[in-house]
Amino acid sequence: MSLARCANGHMFSTRKHGNTCPYCNVIVDSGLKSENRRAVAIGEDEKTMPYLGEVEGIEPVTGWLVCIEGPQIGQDYRIMAEKNFIGRAEEMHIRILGDNTISRRNHAVIVYDPKKRNFYLLPGDASGLAYHNNEAVYSPTELTAYDVIQLGRSKFIFIPLCGAHFEWENNTGEE
């Protein structure tokens, strides 16, 4: 669960809302998150703040997309198990803000299959194309570490965590 506090003091889920506060549209710099978290711990009794986001359990990350070109350069996006729908709309699993050439809904889908331990890039049902290493994606394409994915004018590097060398299920039984 990743929470951020904007300059106006609003708490919100960065997973659901990206780095833009849903109350006042202030963009929170990811470098300030750690400072804001410390500030929250110190002044917790100041006032009650609304929380927008998931409250049940932790959904383990399986990999990341890191923006290397486009309006959100440097921003990382968590990839969870199974389907991750990508777009600009609030309900997307991976919400990319600032690039209006990315479709609002289902521009592309990244799938992590925990049984086969591999990642795939699927084209979405929107009008925009997704590119995998500069090739248009028309059917499921398997992803490997450091593949470049282009959506609209933004480019991302794919970084896997789970796969042949690591899986969350293997670690849960050991503790």
Keyphrases for this structure?
5-stranded mixed beta sheet; 175 residues; single chain; Tumour Suppressor Smad4; globular; 6-stranded antiparallel beta sheet; mainly beta
Give a structural overview.
With 175 residues, the protein is mainly β. It has a domain at 61-160: Sandwich (Tumour Suppressor Smad4). The chain has helices spanning 14-17, 33-42, 168-172; strands at 3-5, 11-13, 61-69, 76-80, 82-87, 94-95, 108-113, 118-123, 130-132, 135-136, 141-143, 148-151, 154-160. Strands 4-3-13-12-9-10 form a 6-stranded antiparallel sheet, with no helix packed on it. The protein has a 5-stranded mixed sheet with strand order 6-5-7-8-11. A two-stranded antiparallel sheet has the order 1-2. A hairpin with a 6-residue loop joins strand 3 and strand 4 (76-80). It is globular, with a radius of gyration of 17 Å. Mean pLDDT is 84; it is low at 32-42.
